[in-house]
Design goal:
The strands form 5 sheets. Strands 2-1-3-4 form a 4-stranded parallel β-sheet, with helices on one face. It has a two-stranded antiparallel sheet with strand order 5-6. The chain has a two-stranded antiparallel sheet with strand order 7-8. Strand 3, helix 9 and strand 4 (223-225) form a beta-alpha-beta unit. Helix 2 (12-46) packs antiparallel against helix 6, helix 3 packs across helix 5 (83-108) and helix 11 (256-292) runs antiparallel to helix 12 (340-347). The chain is an alpha/beta fold. It is built from 17 helices and 12 strands.
């Protein structure tokens, strides 16, 4: 749409007014919900309505809630456009309000058993009711505003096409843009186009970025310039320090708290597993030794977290003279290198049990991308020659099991698709890691311990 037509059809003031109305409605409903919850809670424990004690608790709690809600941005664009964000902000606001109330009443010595029961019941009822209200608001925004209650404008000026749902688009006149350097009328047109926008995105050639940057700064809008170079780099953010600008192109997938949580999960399962499976592992080790007298373990260098090498342990399942230290040859279904006991432990995944020791030594995790042998091939190509994103799978510790395994991506990598399927699952796991996700994969692994491709 041309700039002039867009200005004539401008719906920004209406959108902004509607957004303010939704904020006000949500705020008033929240206050009404708190009132109703405390009145109902008082009636439950006292048997009459209204309860003087419930009203006293309510009068003390609601101002705390309002202050924390405003500070915590409980009423914002994100809470209207994202139900998950709204739920998180609501949980945080009500939780902090409840804790602050209990701490204050504890120190003033006015917290009785009755008040605590009334308060707890009221907070729970209010929380459940507010969840329903926010679900309705989210549905309303999605249905009536295409999921966006904010004014987002994309100005197309010869740059790449940006596909964002629910945004306005205008086409910049190249001649007008050139004149805007010295033409007040052209600047006025651009200014009126961007006025009232919550976010302006400009897609333009490199030589016009400085111009658009100056225009957006002068217009007082939140402005962004599309950069194909940054897209290729996969830039995550921009940092500034001592007058220098730095592109953030890499960030650890897990913070300290997440790493500690993942380690606790590892140890919580690994230590009991080693105790319970210890006798089985001893029997398997004895059978391997008795069959041909060779070593019990097969130790192979694998790539671990941060692209650092470690020695991965497995029960030896192949004949001593035919071991493949580099992993250049994938094991086939009727592989003549596999021993008699080796066929059984590979089919049942028992050969992987020694990796519990790698987990215990913090070289591996229970769940993560499976570590591949360095010489592994698919279609006569090394894995990293097939997809340049291959090395990104090493940003987390390798796992005893993983998302790729529970989806059935096991066995020989005969084609490039065999590798890309596994890589896609590994990168998806890294992007969306969560403790619950790890637990789901651990329990799902039980279903694929015996798998047609485990040979």
């Amino acid at each position: 749409m041309p700039l002039k037509d867009f200005i004539e059809q401008n719906r920004r003031p209406a959108m902004e007014h509607r957004r303010i109305q939704l904020y006000a409605a949500l705020f008033l409903i929240d206050i009404g919900t708190l009132f109703a919850s405390f009145w109902l809670s008082g009636a439950i424990y006292v048997g009459r309505m209204p309860s003087l004690r419930a009203i006293q608790v309510m009068q003390f709690t609601i101002p705390i809630f309002v202050i924390i809600a405003i500070y915590n941005r409980l009423y914002s664009i994100q809470t209207l456009e994202s139900f998950r964000h709204a739920l998180w902000r609501l949980s945080l606001t009500l939780g902090l309000s409840a804790m602050l109330f209990l701490v204050m009443t504890f120190y003033v010595g006015s917290s009785t058993d009755f008040a605590r029961l009334t308060f707890s019941t009221a907070v729970i009822m209010a929380f459940l009711a507010m969840i329903v209200v926010r679900a309705f608001f989210y549905w309303y925004v999605k249905r009536n505003f295409r999921g966006r209650i904010s004014n987002v404008l994309i100005i197309e000026d010869g740059g790449p096409f940006i596909d964002l749902p629910g945004v306005d688009r205008v086409e910049a006149d190249g001649e007008m843009v050139e004149q805007a350097h010295s033409d007040p009328e052209a600047l006025d047109l651009l200014g009126r186009t961007m006025r009232g926008m919550d976010r302006v995105i400009v897609s333009c050639p490199v030589d016009r970025r400085k111009f658009w940057t100056r225009i957006m700064r002068a217009s007082g809008v939140h402005g962004e310039v599309v950069s194909e170079a940054l897209q290729e780099l996969g830039a995550l953010a921009l940092e500034r320090e001592h007058g220098w600008s730095f592109l953030v192109v890499s960030a650890g997938p897990l913070g300290l708290r997440a790493r500690l949580t993942k380690r606790v999960i590892d140890l919580a399962f690994t230590v009991p597993a080693l105790i319970l499976l210890g006798p089985l592992m001893l029997v398997v080790a004895l059978l391997i030794k008795l069959e041909d007298g060779g070593p019990v373990f097969f130790v192979q260098p694998r790539m671990g977290q941060g692209n650092c090498m470690f020695d991965m342990l497995k029960f030896r399942s192949m004949k001593v003279g035919k071991l493949d230290a580099e992993g250049a040859r994938s094991t086939s279904r009727e592989d003549d290198r596999v021993t008699r006991i080796g066929k059984f432990i590979r089919r049942t995944s028992i050969d992987e049990l020694p990796q519990l020791l790698n987990v215990l030594r913090s070289e591996m995790s229970l769940v993560g991308p499976r570590p591949h042998a360095l010489g592994s091939l698919a279609n006569e190509k090394l894995f990293w020659e097939i997809d340049s994103n291959y090395w990104q799978r090493h940003s987390l510790k390798p796992g005893l099991t993983g998302l790729a395994q529970v989806r059935g991506f096991r066995g020989a990598t005969e084609t490039e698709m065999h590798l890309t399927d596994r890589l896609g699952a590994d990168l998806e796991y890294i992007r969306h890691w969560s403790p619950l996700g790890d637990l789901k994969i651990i329990f799902a692994t039980a279903k694929v311990l015996v798998h047609p491709n485990a040979y």
